[in-house]
What we know:
Layout: E1 2-3, E2 9-10, H1 19-26, H2 28-45, H3 47-50, H4 82-118, H5 120-134, H6 138-149, E3 153-154, E4 157-158, H7 159-166, H8 169-185, H9 188-195, H10 200-208, H11 213-236, H12 248-251, H13 255-258, H14 265-292, H15 294-297
Amino acid sequence: MSATDAGTITYTVPKRRHPVVLFVTQQPLGAAGLVLIVLMLTASLFAGFVAPYDPLAVDYESMLGAPSWAHLLGTDAFGRDVLSRIIYGARTALVVGLASSLLGCTLGAVIGMVSAYFGGRVDMLIQRLMDILLSFPIIVLALAVVAVLGKFVVGGIDVNLIIAIAVPMVPKVARVVRSSALAIREMPYVDAARAAGFSDRRIIFRHIMPNVVAPYLIMFTAFIAQAILLEASLSFLGLGVTEPTASWGLMLSGSSADFYQQAPWMIVFPGVAISLAVFAFNLFGDSLRDWLDPKIKL
């Protein structure tokens, strides 16, 4: 606000900054995690141009080669370039992580909204089913789903593996979304929509769903890290991605366990890649929660 010579008062409207700029300035740690995510996403999308070698190319003359200018991160027991396999492994991790998190969080959100909206016996039955799923450890539940469904590989990715990783996410997301939807269900505009004769489906997806987007996005980003770690664990156990597909968990198993003393780079670098990916998504997810939650901002 300022006064002119004529005595009139003018108001200066502050310039609104872009949401991305606000996020970077208010959440620098989340921005650092986002940078790592973008780098990993870029490397996976352009793996054919970024990777120095074919990740499946076998070179028996270079087996167990130490890091050098020719192979920056060394080679494995088959002479395959470790750096190239890590870059292509990022593609596997992101595809499985994003797909399973999207499937699990979306299904959990729908179940949570339906449970909260209808209440009564429907709510009780759904929540008891969620309790049963929550009673199993994540890895045990994923192993059970993989064992039941078997393998269905499309483009080198096991579709049933994505389902197995998504299933343990459903009850957690359903609980969080249900708690938010219970409060929204009692809002006057929801009662007005019922009085106007709108269908239950319209009320759920037009009036309740937009108000649970924030917790949905927070859990979606957080569960990507969990999905990447779970995919690596299942691949390490031989129940996830199979050879010769590049996978970080697969790179830690098999011959890597046999030659870890002779060629420690076969284990160290894939482990660092997994840690950085999980760290980046956790940083971004926590910062996104702090940025979107008005209670934390107060």
